[in-house]
Write a structure and sequence with these properties.
The chain is of the alpha+beta class and about 180 residues long. The protein has four helices and six strands, in the order H-H-E-H-E-E-H-E-E-E.
Length: about 180
């Protein structure tokens, strides 16, 4: 009986995927008809609106990889730079969370290890954080977000107010 349930679940996923693909084809067909009508009218304002719709569809075509429609998991690690690097990792975490919020994705912190005690919130910075991003095309938009991020600033942690370079790294987004 267990295999019956698994087969039913797989069939449901395939049916949902097929429905989404049919909807995409219908959307492109509607755009084609709309373009023909706009060519006949010659209305500049409507042509501008059409271009915006077309850009949205181009993004969907760009995000047509096998896993692009799915969720993602992103990890951030403080690199060289001590407290400054941990503070920078926290800033990156907030930046990604705000980006996801703006895009309509839901985020959930899966794990976060904090830096040294003593900051205004009890701790200074983040040593490591992993968070889940849920939403349509979350993985597609974040799959290239990997590498080392560098911050050069006058350190708020330096008593002599020297310029410091801090590093934080985020790992490639994984399917969530």
């Amino acid at each position: 009986m267990a295999s019956y349930g698994a087969g039913k679940e797989k069939a449901g996923k395939i049916t949902q995927e097929l429905t989404e693909l049919k909807k995409e084809v219908e959307d492109f067909e509607e755009l084609e008809v709309e373009l023909e009508l706009l060519k006949e009218e010659g209305n500049e304002a409507k042509i501008f609106e059409f271009e915006k719709k077309l850009k949205g569809k181009e993004t969907q075509v760009f995000l047509s990889g096998k896993y692009d429609r799915g969720n993602a998991i992103l990890s951030i690690y403080a690199g060289a730079g001590g407290q400054d690097a941990q503070d920078w990792a926290t800033m990156l975490l907030r930046m990604y969370e705000r980006y996801c919020q703006r895009e309509g994705f839901k985020t959930k912190i899966l794990h976060q290890s904090f830096g040294e005690p003593g900051g205004p919130e009890g701790r200074i910075g983040t040593k490591q954080a992993s968070f889940e991003i849920k939403g349509k095309f979350a993985f597609g938009f974040l799959k290239k977000e990997n590498g080392v991020h560098r911050l050069v600033r006058i350190s708020p942690f330096s008593p002599t107010k020297l310029r410091h370079t801090s590093f934080a790294r985020n790992s490639k987004a994984r399917r969530g």
